[in-house]
Design brief:
alpha+beta, 2 domains, 4-stranded mixed beta sheet, 3-stranded antiparallel beta sheet, about 15% strand, rod-shaped
Length: about 325
């Protein structure tokens, strides 16, 4: 197989990989424009190949050696394109939508892998560009008919410079994505904490079970209505919740979990002072006047029961 045939196959394979990788990454107008530019670049390389055919017909052993170096450089360009395609494939693993811990670890590992690959490619590109620059200097000293080969080397050097810019852009993109992931993770944690706090606050309830004297002394209830009997005793006074309630006097609970509330004495009658519906509780015994007895009360429908107020006040009669 002639050197020209090898050059033709390498250029064709490199072009297919380059265009395929580019088309797979085109998701917006800017990427499509870059694909069109690369297609034009391929056409230019084909034209250079045709020009190179004329040079080879009269090439000397020195030009054959230079052309062999061109083939090596072209193969390297193909390797860069293949590596870039692998990197583009890895970018799908660093999505910011990762939420679980395993997903975060996978994304972080993928980011680290991509940055390492890009750093290695940049080192290889720098070394290869130095070699091509030296080759260009050598080609300038060759006969005038080697101009086409020197032009091809210059084109390959420019292409490698373009690839280096793409690698730098990839590095910046991955770093920005890493920062974005960290920001989103922090925002999500803050939002989760806020939602939890709101959930706890919305479902927090308070209850107290005590005798009349204690409730009055603590400012939990006040007396309304009634009249004096024998100028001394007040008759018919009704207990109502105070306008301002001190939560520290109550026992706090969660309406979803506080389904049973103990009563201090099973032998004493109790009455709900707050606006809660006595029909929504279950006790050992209920009286016609709304009072009840038992060891505890069981809330049958928490949503309806607590809807009227977060503060449940139960008085011992």
């Amino acid at each position: 197989m002639t050197v020209f045939a090898i050059r033709h196959r390498v250029l064709t394979a490199a072009a297919c990989v380059l265009v395929g990788a580019t088309l797979s990454a085109c998701t917006d107008a800017a990427s499509k424009a870059r694909a069109d530019s690369l297609a034009a670049e391929l056409a230019s390389v084909n034209a250079q190949r045709d020009s190179l055919q004329g040079v080879m017909s009269s090439s000397s052993a020195e030009k054959d050696r230079a052309l062999s170096q061109v083939v090596e450089a072209t193969k390297f360009a193909e390797e860069v394109d293949v590596e870039l395609r692998k990197v583009r494939g890895l970018t799908s693993k660093v999505s910011v939508n990762k939420t679980d811990e395993s997903g975060k670890t996978e994304a972080a590992d993928a980011q680290k892998d991509i940055l390492n690959r890009l750093a290695q490619m940049r080192q290889r590109l720098t070394a290869r560009q130095a070699q091509i620059t030296a080759m260009l200097d050598t080609m300038k000293s060759l006969r005038a008919d080697s101009g086409a080969t020197a032009s091809l080397l210059a084109d390959l050097n420019a292409r490698l410079a373009t690839r280096e810019k793409e690698i730098i852009a990839f590095q910046d993109e991955i770093k920005a994505l890493r920062t974005q992931n960290a920001t989103l993770t922090a925002e999500k944690a803050t939002l989760t904490d806020t939602v939890k706090a709101m959930d706890v606050r919305e479902n927090k309830v308070f209850y107290i079970v005590a005798n009349r004297r204690t409730l009055l002394a603590d400012g939990i209830v006040t007396e309304e209505g009634g009249s004096r009997g024998l100028l001394i005793v007040k008759l018919g006074k009704t207990l109502v919740p105070a306008r301002t309630l001190d939560e520290s006097r109550f026992t706090a609970g969660d309406r979803r979990q506080t389904l049973t509330i103990a009563l201090p004495r099973a032998d004493r009658p109790y009455r709900i002072v707050s606006r809660h519906d006595v029909g929504l509780i279950e006790v050992a015994k209920k009286e016609k006047d709304g009072s009840f007895r038992g060891e505890s009360i069981k809330i049958l429908d928490p949503a309806k029961f607590w809807a009227v107020s977060r503060y449940l006040i139960i008085s011992e009669k």
